Every structure is written in C-alpha cells, then in structure tokens.
Amino acid sequence: MNGELRFPEGFLWGTATAAYQVEGAAQEDGRGPSIWDTFAKTPGKVLNGDTGDVACDHYHRYPEDVRLMKELGMQAYRFSIAWPRIFPEKGRYNPKGTDFYKRLVDTLHQHGILPVATIYHWDLPQWIQDEGGWANRRSVDYFVEYANTLFRELGDVVPLWITHNEPWCVSFLSHWLGQHAPGHRDLREALQVAHHVLLSHGRTVQAYREAGLSGRIGITLNLTVVDAASEDPADLRAAQISDGNANRWFLDPIFRGSYPADMVEIYTEQAGPFDFVHADDLDIIRRPIDFLGVNYYTRSVVRAGEDGMPKPVPPAGPVTDMGWEVHPESLYRLLTRLRREYTGLPLYITENGAAYPDRVVDGRVDDPERIAYLRDHFAAAHRFIQEGGNLQGYFVWSFMDNFEWAFGYSKRFGLVYVDYATQTRIPKASALWYRDVIAANGIR
Ligand SMILES: OC[C@@H]1[C@@H](O)[C@H](O)[C@@H](O)c2[nH]c(CCc3ccccc3)c[n+]21
C-alpha cells in the first residue's frame, strides 16, 4: 500500500511511566519519603498543591493496567523503580518494596510484555537529600548499592535496564532553575549533581557487567535541537551554548570521556574550579553502554541576551498544551546528529508524546492532535531508519495520564485517560490508533 511506512521486523513498540507519577501508595509496604513527596507538600511548588500520594493508584491497579496494555497491543512497558520503596531509610533494605516490582514484572511476562526498568526517575529518598543529595559524592555509593540490589533481585527477569532518566533534569532543572525537587538555584551545585549522576551511571554499568547478567543496560537523556533565532553571530553563539548545556554536557562524557571544552570554560568562569571531578571519574562515566535512550519532545529556538547567554524565543508554530513547539523534523535532525557525531549504538526513543486538554464526551476521548503528533514523529523516526539509523524501539509518553511534576494533574500526556475521581481508565482515540500502528508495524 503506497504511503505506508513499515518499521523493521522486531521493532519494539511500547509506552512509558515513572513511579512517583503513577504508583500512589506513598506510605504502603514500607515506602519512605522521597524529595518529590517533600517538594509536592511544600506550598507553591506544585500546581493546585497536587501530590503523588494517590496518583493513578498503579501500585494496586497494575494488573488491570497491564491487561489494558495487552489489549492495546503494547509490546513493552518502561517503568521506573522507586528507590524510597527499596531503601526507605539509611541502611535499611525493604524487601516488600522489591516484591511489588517482582509482581509487576511477573504480570508483564504473563502478558508477553517486555519489562524495561528505569532505576532512577527523580524520586531520591529524602534521607539521602538530608545528607546533601546528589551534590554529596556519597550518593554515588548509595546508588550503586541500590542498583546492585535490583540486579540481585530482578536481574534475571528484567532484560533492559536504564540507569538514569534525564540527568539534565536531575541537575540543571532541579538544582539551577529550581523548578523540580529539591528546588535549588545554584549552578555549582547543579554541576556537582550532574557529575555525580553521570559517575553513578558509569559505576552502575560496571556493576551490571560484574553481575554477569544477560540483559542490556543504557541511559536515557532528554535531548533536543537548538536553533538560533537569526544568523547574527551572537544568536549563533547563544545556540551553541544552549546546545552545550542541554545536549553536549551529557553526550560528551558518556561517548567521548570528557566534558565539552567550550562549556567547561564558561562554567568554570561562572561556578569556579571543577575540583569535584576526580582523576578517573570520566573513564568510569564513559564505560560502554548497550543502547542510548532518547527522550525527545520539541526543539528550542534561542537568541542572545544582553550577557550573550541564550534566551528562549517563543515558538512560532503549533504547540502542545505544555507550550512546546510541535516539530517532528527535529526528531529526525536529532537522531541523525547522534549517529553522525556520537554513536552507532542501538537507539530507543524512550519518551515522545504530547499533552493536550483531553475531555470525555459520551464516554469517549477524541484526541486527533495527539494522533497527528505521534504520526508525524513516527514518520520522522522512520526516515532515520530508512537512511540506515539504528533505532530499535519507541516508547510513547505516556501509557496513561499521570502526575506531571510541577503541573500536577493539569496536563494529560496519556494514551489512556484517567478519571482521578474514580480511577477509571478510558483508552483515548490515540490508544486505538497506536494499537493499529503496532499491529501493522507501520503507519499509513
Ligand atoms: O513532561 C512530560 C515528561 C515527564 O512526565 C517525564 O517524567 C519526564 O521524563 C519528561 N522529560 C521531558 C522532557 C524534559 C523536560 C522535563 C520536564 C520539564 C521540561 C523538560 C518530558 N517529560
């Protein structure tokens, strides 16, 4: 059929969520507080004072949710493991926490759905934050102990592991811009956090190899394409700096074993010497991974501010409910750049999706914009594959509506609508469309 874009045999189609955004059961079975429990309960931090206390109650409703994933033809499910369930207090391992993930993974296997586990998706145990959090180098050791526990308990039933979700968000968004937990605004601390998160990634890859497990391990980065608002040299330099912060600060250490020199110069000037980088740290960070997870949502356009630093330019084209420009061609540009400049390793789109103000009308949710968004981004991914790109799977964010961090429950990214008052799940039109894409392994 002409116009149909078929994906390679074995291409992995899935969806993604994260523990704090969907599980609820915040105190159940020994779970301890995370920095997001603390942040959400701090007045003014999260819209409407929303918290993850109940969320989608996935902790109890996962059997129904997995059944629905199966009905919708999903082949894989990317979820995250809540560190505060596994180590709720310093030095205390909580087997009941691990037991939940054993139940979840077992249920996924029973339904023929591939489990993909993200070890860290932002819910740092509060007891670690009380010791300085990721800015304290000891957090690296705590993380490796946590990861080794997961490899021991779940290593033979989880085939794909992701060490971290979006080090940029864990560091710059949370410790420099202050928009996410713990809500700090300190560039030097953000740089230390980025370094320790990357170091914990490298140490964990090492630990996974030493565990002799048969699965694969990688990391997920949120990446984008940064365009200059004009050809003015100041705007071009601003775009270069923005690209350095968003993309190269993480890609370079992981794939080249060094921080980007242009950015080191800027950050050293602004934040002081990098004395938190020890001699063999970068050799550890660059330990070979098996795949790279890419979270792509939008591109950015920047101009130079008075100080020459990048300033965002509001999108000219169509935007989602987050105000993010719909720009599928930049997914193609991003993937092509990764292949050209960084790696030929397998890539997975570990998140891509859109929020729109979905409404239930006569028991149904029509979301044509989300279908159009996904179709255009699938087509961009297909073009990359056609040109020889090694893209092996795609996880739509998100399986269901959930706690959208500082926006609380006001933003709906789900393929499945959640009525939070009743916890009813309603597959949106996009979920039924996605089911057909998976069945055809392609788009028309
Ligand atoms: O905002 C939608 C999703 C979140 O719900 C996921 O937990 C998170 O992994 C994720 N990352 C991005 C792109 C990076 C970003 C996150 C938050 C705010 C601004 C940019 C979008 N999303």
Automatic annotation (TrEMBL):
Enzyme class per UniProt: hydrolase
Chain ranges passing through the membrane: none
Matches recorded under Pfam families: Glyco_hydro_1 (PF00232)
InterPro entries: GH, GH_1_N_CS, Glyco_hydro_1, Glyco_hydro_1_AS, Glyco_hydro_1_beta-glucosidase
Keyword Hydrolase attributed: yes
Catalytic reactions of this protein: Hydrolysis of terminal, non-reducing beta-D-glucosyl residues with release of beta-D-glucose
Residues annotated as catalytic: E166, E351
GO molecular function: beta-glucosidase activity
Gene3D superfamilies: Glycosidases
Annotated Gene Ontology cellular component terms: cytosol
EC number, UniProt record: 3.2.1.21
Keywords: Carbohydrate metabolism, Cellulose degradation, Glycosidase, Hydrolase, Polysaccharide degradation
GO biological process assignments: cellulose catabolic process
Amino acids binding substrate: Q21, H121, N165, Y297, W397, E404, W405
Family: Belongs to the glycosyl hydrolase 1 family.
Entry-linked PANTHER family: GLYCOSYL HYDROLASE, LP05116P
Protein name: Beta-glucosidase
Species assigned in the record: Alicyclobacillus cellulosilyticus
